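Q: Hi! First time doing this. I have a protein sequence and I read that you can turn it into a structure. Is that right? Here it is:
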Amino acid sequence: MKLRRIRQPKRGRIEIIPMIDVMFFLLVTFMLASLTMQHLNAVQVNLPQGAAAPMEKKPQVTLTVTPDSQLFLDKTPVTLDRLAPTLKTMLNPADPSVIIAADNAATNGVIVQAMIKAREAGVFSNMV
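A: Yes, that's right. Below is the predicted 3D structure, encoded as structure tokens:
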């Protein structure tokens, strides 16, 4: 008669939770060490303090050309014929600049014509 062992031999297991804890600790350690080394090449200076009035935010005019070649001045629809007079009233005389936002699918001819009309309104007069 063959006798069975009461105890089964235990197989070794790899526990992954302590390994995750160690890797997290190493990650945090290296992150903190890299943050402290960031100022090694910097020179400590005392920056001057000034008392000035807050800067005035200048409103900018945006000329938008949609994919179907419609024109908008600050979300207001405008035709190509009315672009120059409308833009002239909206421009700041101290800074006659316009941001042109043209869609990638818009035709180049409409964009160029809009830029010519904007130049007639005095937008690009200070550029060479």
